[in-house]
Amino acid sequence: IHRMMTDFSVPEIVARLLVSRNVEPEKVQSFLFPRLATDFPDPFSLKDMAEFASWLADQIEAGKKIAAFCDFDVDGSTSAAVLKKFFHHLNIDLPVYIPDRMTEGYGPNIQALQKLRSDGADIILMADCGTTAFDVIEQGRELGLDICIFDHHEQGDHLPASKWLINPKRKDDTSDLDMLAAVGVTFLACVAVNKTLREKGYYDRRGITEAPLKDWLDLVGLGTVCDMVPLTGPNRLLVRIGFAQMAQHKNIGLKALCEVGGIKKDPTPMDAGFVLGPRINAGSRVHQADLGAKLLSCTDAEEAKNLAWTLNDCNAKRKSIQNDMMREALDQIEQRNLAERPIIMVWDETWHAGLN
Fold first, then answer.
1. What's the pLDDT at 356?
2. Residue of 45, 19, 26, 14 whose CA lies nearest to 234
3. CB of 61 within 8 A of CB of 76?
């Protein structure tokens, strides 16, 4: 502890916390002050990333039609926005499908894949879901779709029949990046594809600059905090740099949401968890599932403002419904004399399914 205090000029309480978290002295600097130049994870350490990036770069070159299917929570919405911005920079329109929480539930469904296929998609980039959607992925393959999954959920007894599965929680993955949220995995995939496109001469041939990936780290920081993954390893870097980027307000959707949410100073992880995240989530809970992804990827300031206010209204409605449910739950507990029970579970069929 004394060495920590002396070598790194930190208070005793910080030194004790570092020791309690088993942070070795040689790793203190990167733990407290991670830097992109030295602490950014190697995307190609993820299982199959190199092969996937080379394959996708070839598909982009060949003009294959690509679409995205992403979950409706903040992690999924930020993943969708990262993908949308990356392909927009490549001058490629990327249709994004966000499933309806109430009617479609979590994860991919065959009706959504059929629609994307009928709209011309050859490839589906699937973020924050899909690792255990065995039947749907198989059906998607039978439709002729090449499905590429970016996920961080535990795998089942076997892997889905996707074209590619980039997931640090695969049993055969040795990257030690299992702390990443899906948006972190998605961002690393974009970094890998960007590098591969550069090496294949894609940017030079088209006379365009490389994707400004650092500009989108605000989305990665937001999704990482809101998905409540461990702030260890590269997540500390992604959040630190991501929130520094967020403070520049380059993302007009996030800027509008900060204004609507009353965030007047530089956004903090607490703002993300209690102001920004709930509003992004509220769209899928009480209104329209894709509002968050649209806000985070939009390029028009007026549209961003309208979307932000719509999400703010959704959040107010969500809080009102939740308060009513809480009052009814407490009434049930009182009427049924359950207050002294060690575990209390109450339910009503009229309660909003998106808030149970």
1. 65
2. 45
3. no
Q: Which residues contact 203 (CB under 8 A, 6 or more apart)?
A: 197, 209, 210
Please state, as a whole number, how many other Cβ atoms lie within 10 Å of the Cβ of residue 142: 11
Bridge partners of 245, per DSSP, are none
Q: Rounded to an integer, what distance in angstroms lies between the CA atom of residue 283 and that of residue 314?
A: 6
User: φ and ψ at 69, to 5 degrees?
Assistant: -125, 120
Alpha-carbon distance 243 to 266, whole Å? 8
Q: How many Cβ atoms are within 10 Å of 347's Cβ, its own excluded?
A: 8
Task: Give the pLDDT score at 2.
Answer: 84
Q: How many CA atoms lie within 13 A of 45 on its CB side?
A: 10
Measured distance CA(349)–CA(327) in Å, rounded: 15
Rounded Cα–Cα distance for residues 56 and 275 (Å): 36
Query: What is the structure's pLDDT at 7?
Result: 84
pLDDT value for 269: 97
Nearest CA-CA partner of 198 in 296, 101, 300, 57 = 57
CA distance 181 to 299: 25
67: β partners: 124
Q: Which residues contact 257 (CB under 8 A, 6 or more apart)?
A: 276, 279, 280, 295, 308, 311
- What 3-state class would DSSP assign to 349? coil
182 contacts 76 by C-beta, under 8 angstroms: yes
pLDDT tens digits for range 247-268? 999 999 999 999 999 999 999 9
Residues of the chain with pLDDT under 70: 356
Length of the chain: 356
The CA distances from residue 147 to 143, 157, 188, in Å, are 11, 19, 18
Q: In angstroms, rounded to a whole number, what is the distance separating the alpha carbons of residues 131 and 294?
A: 25
What's the DSSP call for residue 10?
A: -
With tokens 């991670």, the residue in question is 34
